[in-house]
Amino acid sequence: MMRHRVKIQKKVWFSPSIFGIEFYLPGINPEPGQFFQIQVSNTLDPFLNRPISIADYNKNRILLIIKVVGRGTQILSRIGVGDELNIFGPFGKGVKITDKKGILIAGGIGVAPLYFLARKLKARGIDFTFIYGAKTPADLILKKELKMIAPRFDFITETGGRKRGTVLSLLEGISLSDFKVGYACGPKQMLKELKDMDLKIPIYAFCEDFLGCGCGLCLGCAIRYNGEYKRICEDGPVFELRGIEF
Domain FAD-binding FR-type: where (predicted)? Predict the structure, then answer.
């Protein structure tokens, strides 16, 4: 388990409940889908680290985007520029990027690892469409950045704005025959409904859950995949959606 002591170089609030931190970490080469475990406190309370997906890696600079959802992330939200953190990783297996035209489907904070993937696709000249849904307009983050890098980009919220609905609603107006592969990250219910839609193309799901150890020992993140138990942290977190048994 690789431990790093990092100093926060930049912090930005994207919304009242979502913030990003940046720090330098040379000597690694993370892939979209991988994550770090962040030590929340120097004491045993909270005991478990918090798993956070990598949202970007550029010139030794790591971006992590964190949503405040409980006590652990509330504590992390108090860190500032110049503060130091203990982090472990990166963990997991990143997604295997192909040169096939793809569609990226982001729900809520699931936009973070897909933003990293979108930047990779853009850098390699691979064509893609990015669709993104959130609860409220305030929860839609990285819109400006995504508009700059995605050849085609659309967004929606459940509470209104220019469009109302979930990100899966946007699929109704898209000709999926144009795509050869899909990538999705969001709430478990979103992924389940996406699987039920049976889109006829391989969809690679970035599974995010509450992980214990982050390195496969505790088995707390096991899911059923193609009739077997797999660990999100070690065997994933990216799995082909059709094989996940919800």
Answer: 1-97
